[in-house]
Amino acid sequence: MNYYLLFYDTVDNYVEKRQPYRDQHLRLANEFRERGELVMAGAYDPADGAALVFKGNSEDVAENFARKDPYVMKGLVTKWWVRKWSVVVV
Description:
Helix content is 33%, strand content 36%. By secondary structure, it is α+β, with helices and mostly antiparallel strands.
């Protein structure tokens, strides 16, 4: 298993604009967490982006999340990308 970081850049006023989609987003996150694929996630402070940590055999696990995420589909995320993360200490 490898770790992958999913990075989001978000629109201005992201915190306010995400409210209509927040329950759907958290439901999706919990589905991935329950399967052991999502390790942790959260917005930056200030909330101009977010980072999510995934565990899987390929970057597909993080990419699949992003493609299903209502924040991405509704245009709240202006850019997203995945990086493999070489974890040294857990």
